[in-house]
Amino acid sequence: MNEDHSWEGNWKVLLYERVRERGYESLTAFAEARPTTSLVALAEELGEDDLNAVQVFSGLVAEAERSHRVTRLVRGQLVRELAKSFPDGWPAVLDDANRFKAAVALGAWFGFTPETHRERVDQGSDALLAHPPPPGWRPLGPDDELLRTLLPDEEA
Amino acid sequence: MDDPQSCGVAAANDRPPDGGLLSEATTGQLALLRLSGPRLQAATSGGMLLAAWLDYLNLAETVHQKCPAYSVERLFRDMERVQKRIAPTMRALASMEPEQVEAATAALPELMGQLTQEYKSLSEAGRVAMERAEQAIAAAQFIEMLTAMSTLKLALPRLPPTAPALTGVGLVMSSGGIMAGTRIVVTAEWVEMMRRLVQAGAISVSAASAAVRIHAGQVMMAQANRELPQGVREALGDGPEVRAMHETGKAGAGMAERPRHHVLPEEFREWFEKRGFTGAMDINKFCVELEMAKHQALHGGGNWRLGRIWPGEWNQMIMDVLQRAERRAGRMLTRNEVLDIVAERMKEYKIPMNFVSGRER
After folding, report:
1. Which of A4, A53, A114 has the CB atom closest to B348's CB atom?
2. B42, B71: one domain
3. Same domain, B46 and B154
4. Where are the domains of chain A?
5. What is the pLDDT of residues B86-130, one digit of tens each?
6. How many domains does chain B have?
7. Of B323, B331, B349, the CB nearest to A54
8. Spatial distance between the Cα atoms of B154 and B221, rounded to a whole number of angstroms
9. What ipTM is given for this predicted complex?
10. Considering the entire predicted model, what is its pTM?
């Protein structure tokens, strides 16, 4: 493994340089083009040795705040977490092992939720487990229909 | 190739070609293994040392019973001398402090060499005392008996009168294991296990080398700090990456000590204790050394954020994730589940998975 330099130097400048180099107008556009990719993999693609996942997410939050699309970002983050826990889609049976996987995905989702949305994410998580989606459900982006009922846009 | 199962197999095969037990372990499991490294090293070295001490106890008992010509006072002085020689190393091993354990392990072959010499001269002195008391036959039996029961016997016959001429006896790696001359010193299985542990960073090359030198016997032990032949070192897992791993794990000589960061927040000690983080798995054992800038960033300092509404502070983040995961799992998380979750978050923050003990030195 290479030595990590992600907290050295001006990574904020670096982050946007790399996004532009890859032909995107914004970090959000770069991330939405890879809707099921984990934050770690996004960070690796942008800069394996000098950027990390929390920096990428922080940048995404800043852009979402400016464009008033935080809810959309939050939905998009659940897509990434679910893709990690259930690459083949929502399981048919929620036994202990699958329930744990779901719990890990939802826990991580909460960790990557801005303060303004924590309550809604908590409610949405409970709802998802109380009324599980159909087996095989695999949201491919923030526009997924089920996700939009779980966490509808309310911003202007 | 389209069905998910074959994709899964392809992914599973996408691992480094060297394969094997440890390469299938998760990063978290490897970190745990590394955490137990000092204990493993201390136990291995301590076991050899204890076996040697047991030899001395047997020797003392035999001398005491069979050879009245050897005075009890003299025997007591001899044993006290040996005990004093062993004690500092035992203390260092018992401390479990990685640096102390490492130093004691590296010095072990030389100590074992000295102990073997001493054992030999002590039993010789016993024999002489018996012969003086005209018990020549009993004396010969006495030596035979000592040699048969001793752990040090492996080393004993390897010191012939012409020892210096034998210093050229090399260690070589063969398919059966590591050989000294025509004798297998350690088996191929042992070498393979050591190689994996060394490459996982759990034990150091010098610890594995020390064990080989002790098993190889007197001649190798006497050559203090001599490195093993390259072929043998490579078989034990030595290589540039392994050396680099050990170097980056240390603060480095002359450098200011880097701040130690508790990966599992201290304010939640009780929460972690209830989930099995006690004793050798105490949260103090899960610290990492970080650069100042990174440490500040993890704790929300240094104005690192881009957005306003997501603080991304490590302690809050990790507890949020763990407590929410537990609530949704509907049961208490196990220690390994906690560690797996923490390991994932560490990747996101690019916190190196090299745990050090956070106790004050």
Report:
1. A53
2. yes
3. yes
4. 11-67, 70-150
5. 999 999 888 878 788 888 888 888 888 888 888 888 888 888 887
6. 3
7. B349
8. 12
9. 0.93
10. 0.64
